[in-house]
């Protein structure tokens, strides 16, 4: 370690003192996510509004963190939720257990569950971290606490990040938007299911 | 008489408050600067620009649980932080911040001893007892290592430090800090004539204050937090305080001894150069910045290298400087001081050139054994 080398090093650090910090001041400035960032799950639908999930529990079997719980029920002529013989009557993911590995997405035979980009899920109650179907179905924007906040202030959900979603996520969201509205009225199809915020509020 | 005592007390309280405020904001400034050196933003959440961060830190450290290890020697464990902070604070009182009578007709220093410099060297090294006793009384392994390292390090570097100022004292002929500053105002600042001593003094000051690259006593990677490991709450804060106050004192001593102290540059005219506080504060700030800058840049030294550097480089060089100054005083008593200046510059250049060669860094088995490596 000669003095000249030290001087060179000191010069490098002094130069850095006058460069702009790379820190992103999240949440004031939105964080920029990579397209393939794996965040909260989305349960997708077919173009006709039927849920893709057929309640097969393969995702739950594949999940290394045992975060998924599925209960299946038969589709009946009056209650057809999915495109298969059965549908998921209960579909829950415990976001505290989930490690966002994406195994569920890989295991799903119908491409029903995909990982979106949302990550701002911090909440006060452990119980509120279990996300049900109504919290993850495509079209629902924001996490539970964000939607609760938005409902309270009657403002749209505010997300703290920007992202160009990867193809699967974008397609799922667009397909849901362009869905023909006639199909959307299938009784009990879950379309237009309101996030049960009131329910959460009461329980707490 | 009574007013004198009261005034001195008042000034002492002022110095302590000033030092503690500076300490509080130094922690913030250091964190912000280190962050900027690493292209980060640093703590900026508490209050505007993060300016209330020290307050938050203080509240946090006061209200934390104060743990005492069962195996600790309770009395000494309690005493150690107080030794450290008392010594650190009392050393600063000797630093003159302006010419006599410039603080509303009072002298801008708490006490002015004829042995001022000796007093500072003595008290700052007494502060090491705080660190050493903390390590000793913690009743745990890593603090003990840290404490022992610290005392061994201080012994090695104190020698270099003491020897560096000898030449300077020979020139000025006084240990009184005001006297030294006035000598410099008359003859020119001492960094010019005692360049070698300046280099060795600065390096050993870094070692004395346990700052990077000599922060072995609290090397996180090896010793958890060194002598601080078992401390928590306000006692921990006291040690931090002592460390920063030592740093401020070291900066003040370097400025006073080598950079003209409270006097501004002479070419600005006598009135401007005599404004109290400003010049000393500016110089202290400069040195504090250098302390942080070095911390942001240099990695920690290995312990045996640290000892080697102290004994094989600093000590002989400081000794040589002392001898050279003594020879100048003895054989060329009436000639220009610039001979010493030229000598210093040559030696410093030689040191820079030879620092690149690896010879002095070679570790032989014997020194390793001595260094306990
Ligand atoms: S992302 Fe991984 S951990 Fe999370 S639910 Fe899917 S499989 Fe389980
Ligand atoms: S999400 Fe996919 S894998 Fe999981 S139950 Fe539904 S269809 Fe089966």
Report on this structure.
The complex is a heterodimer of chains A (204) and B (373). Chain A has 204 residues and is of the alpha+beta class. Helix content of chain A is 28%, strand content 14%. In chain A, the strands form three sheets. A three-stranded antiparallel sheet of chain A has the order 3-4-6. The longest helix of chain A is centred in the first third of the chain and has 15 residues, at 3-17. Chain B is mainly alpha-helical and 373 residues long. The structure holds iron/sulfur cluster (SF4) (2 copies). One iron/sulfur cluster binds next to α3 of chain A.
List keywords for this structure.
heterodimer, A: 204 residues, alpha+beta, three-stranded antiparallel β-sheet, 7 helices, 28% helix, elongated, disordered C terminus, B: 373 residues, mainly alpha, 15 helices, 0% strand
CATH fold annotation of chain A: Alpha-Beta Plaits
Terminus-to-terminus distance of chain A = 63 Å
Q: List low-confidence stretches of chain B.
A: none
Q: Indicate the structural class of chain B.
A: mainly alpha
The bound ligands are: iron/sulfur cluster
Strand content of chain B: under 5%
Low-confidence stretches of chain A: 182-204
Fraction in helix of chain A: 25-40%
The largest contact between protein chains, plus residue counts on each side, is: A-B, 19 and 20 residues
Task: Compute the number of strand runs of chain A.
Answer: 7
């Amino acid at each position: 370690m000669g003095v000249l080398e030290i001087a060179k090093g000191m010069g490098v650090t002094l130069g850095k003192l006058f460069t702009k910090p790379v820190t992103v001041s999240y949440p004031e400035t939105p964080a920029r996510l990579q397209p393939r960032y794996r965040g909260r799950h989305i349960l997708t639908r077919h173009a006709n509004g039927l849920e893709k999930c057929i309640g097969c529990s393969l995702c739950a079997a594949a999940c290394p963190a045992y975060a998924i719980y599925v209960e299946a029920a038969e589709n009946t002529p009056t209650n057809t939720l999915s495109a298969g013989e059965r549908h998921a009557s209960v579909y829950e993911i415990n976001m505290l257990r989930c490690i966002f590995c994406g195994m569920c997405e890989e295991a799903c035979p119908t491409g029903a569950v995909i990982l979106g980009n949302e990550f701002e899920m911090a909440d006060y109650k452990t119980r509120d971290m279990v996300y049900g179907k109504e919290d993850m179905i495509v079209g629902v924007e924001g996490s539970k606490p964000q939607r609760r906040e938005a409902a309270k202030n009657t403002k749209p959900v505010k997300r703290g990040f920007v992202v160009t979603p990867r193809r699967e996520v974008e397609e799922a969201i667009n397909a849901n938007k362009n869905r023909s509205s006639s199909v959307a009225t299938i009784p009990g199809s879950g379309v237009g299911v309101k996030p049960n915020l009131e329910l959460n509020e009461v329980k707490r | 008489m009574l007013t004198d005592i009261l005034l001195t007390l008042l000034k002492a309280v002022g110095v302590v408050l000033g030092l503690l405020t500076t300490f509080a904001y130094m922690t913030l400034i250091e964190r912000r600067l280190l962050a900027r050196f690493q292209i980060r933003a640093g703590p900026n959440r508490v209050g505007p620009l993060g300016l209330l961060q020290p307050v938050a830190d203080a509240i946090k450290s006061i209200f934390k649980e104060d743990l005492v290890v069962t195996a600790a020697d309770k009395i000494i464990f309690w005493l150690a932080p107080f030794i450290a902070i008392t010594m650190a604070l009392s050393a600063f009182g000797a630093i003159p911040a302006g010419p006599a009578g410039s603080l509303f007709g009072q002298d801008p220093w708490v006490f002015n001893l004829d042995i001022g410099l000796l007093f500072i060297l003595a008290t700052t090294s007494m502060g090491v007892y705080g660190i050493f006793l903390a390590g000793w009384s913690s009743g745990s392994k890593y603090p003990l290592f840290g404490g022992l390292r610290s005392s061994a390090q201080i012994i090695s570097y104190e020698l270099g430090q003491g020897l560096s100022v000898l030449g300077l004292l020979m020139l000025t002929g006084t240990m009184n800090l005001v006297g030294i500053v006035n000598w410099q105002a008359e003859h020119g600042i001492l960094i010019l004539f005692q360049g070698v001593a300046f280099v060795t003094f600065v390096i050993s000051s870094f070692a004395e204050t346990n700052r990077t690259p000599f922060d072995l006593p609290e090397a996180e990677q090896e010793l958890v937090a060194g002598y601080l490991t078992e401390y928590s709450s306000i006692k921990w804060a006291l040690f931090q305080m002592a460390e920063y106050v030592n740093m401020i004192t070291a900066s003040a001593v370097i400025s006073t001894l080598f950079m003209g102290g409270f006097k501004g540059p002479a070419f600005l005219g006598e009135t401007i150069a005599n404004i109290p506080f400003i010049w000393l504060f500016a110089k202290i700030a400069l040195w504090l910045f250098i302390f942080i800058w070095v911390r942001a840049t240099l990695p920690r030294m290995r312990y045996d290298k640290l000892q080697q550097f102290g004994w094989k480089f600093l000590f002989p060089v400081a000794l040589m400087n002392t001898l050279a100054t003594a020879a100048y005083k003895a054989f060329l008593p009436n000639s220009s001081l610039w001979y010493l200046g030229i000598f210093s510059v040559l030696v410093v250049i030689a040191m820079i050139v030879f620092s690149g060669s690896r010879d002095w860094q070679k570790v032989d088995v014997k020194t390793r054994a001595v260094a306990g490596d």
